Amino acid sequence: MSIKNLPLHAGRLGRALCVSVECKTDPETGVIKTDREGIAVWTVGVAVRPDAKRAGLIEVAVSGEPEGIAPGMYVELVDPEAFMWEMNGRSGLSFRAAKVLPGPSIPIPPASVESVPAAAPAAPAAPAAPAAPAAGKGAAK
């Protein structure tokens, strides 16, 4: 199988939410992986929901440390592409992008008082215990 790059339309990926950012390392040696120019390769985990269908998680490789992004932020993938690979009898589909930039944030409106359910009414107070008989008339001696 030959390597084939497949350009992706970033808009069709839907909103992209960063879930992780880490430097890519060789699992056996721990050596940082680099691209052809010797720049460290980073992996950005991104949750996507293409065309409002089932959500998925993709790992996107990017050369150089992405700046200004952190888990929990929406991100924008610049020139994303997928590519097929085959190595040592294994094959798969990987993703990369020229850059990963901070995306537009969507403010979450605060909850209004009307949208918060009312608290349950307090339980009625227990009846008072009967009073002890007064000393004097009718009291046991």
In brief:
With 141 residues, this protein is mainly beta. The protein is built from no helices and eight strands.
Question: What does the secondary structure layout of this molecule look like, with pairings?
Answer:
Elements lengths: L3 E4 L8 E8 L17 E8 L7 E8 L10 E5 L2 E7 L2 E7 L2 E4 L39
Parallel strand pairs: 4-7
Antiparallel strand pairs: 1-6, 2-3, 2-5, 3-4, 5-8, 6-7
Question: Can you describe this structure?
Answer:
The protein has one domain (4-103): OB fold (Dihydrolipoamide Acetyltransferase, E2P) (Beta Barrel), CATH 2.40.50.140. Helix content is 0%, strand content 36%. It is built from no helices and 8 strands. It has strands spanning 4-7, 16-23, 41-48, 56-63, 74-78, 81-87, 90-96, 99-102. The mean pLDDT is 79.
